[in-house]
Every structure is written in C-alpha cells, then in structure tokens.
Write a structure and sequence with these properties.
Blueprint (H helix, E strand, L loop, with lengths): L5 H26 L1 H27 L24 H25 L1
Length: 109
C-alpha cells in the first residue's frame, strides 16, 4: 500500500522544492551574462597564454616577465629571437585565408 502519511508527503514536497530551487539557482548562475563573460575572458586568457608559450618554445625563448625599471635594450639575455619564420608563417596563413574567401565569393555568383 502506498505511503499516505500527510506529514511524510509534506516533508517530501518541501525537500523536492528545496532541491528544485537549488537547481534553478545553479542554472540561472551558469547562464547569467556576467558569468558567461567571466568564463569567456578566462578561456581567452588561458588560450593566449598557451599560444604565447608555444610561440616562445618555437623560437627557443623562455618567458621572463619584464620588471618595472628594466632597461628595454637588455630584455633579451642573448640576442633577440629571429621572428622571420613566424612572420612568414603568419603571412602565408593570411594569403591562404584571403584566397579561400575570394574563391568562395566567386563560386556564389
């Protein structure tokens, strides 16, 4: 036979309401514009840090934060890294990207 004790049913209803309120608050917090912006900024900062680390690894440069008062001419321990390969790569990506955009525009016509 089913449990028909009114006090027990009221306790279950109150617990269900409390659980539902917690769930709704968590969903509202997760989709609030402020929280979404915070997560996005955090994600972009993390990705930028990884990108800078990988570029530094590719150039053979270990990151060292500049301190206030450092002489700008002496930021590099040895000589500045050769940026030519990186700039050539960026240029090649831009050329290929522009070619793809132009090709797609011509196909639409």
């Amino acid at each position: 036979m089913a449990d028909t004790d009114p006090d027990e049913l009221e306790r279950r209803i109150a617990k269900t309401r409390a659980d539902l309120a917690v769930t709704v608050d968590a969903i509202a917090d997760r989709v609030s514009p402020k929280r979404v912006a915070e997560r996005t900024v955090s994600d972009v900062k993390s990705r930028a840090g990884h990108l800078m680390a990988s570029v530094g690894d590719a150039l053979g440069v270990t990151p060292r934060p500049a301190q206030f008062g450092d002489d700008p001419d002496r930021l590099w321990d040895d000589e500045p890294p050769n940026l030519a390969p990186v700039l050539i790569g960026v240029g090649a990506v831009l050329v290929v990207g522009a070619a793809i955009v132009l090709w797609r525009r011509r196909r639409r016509r």
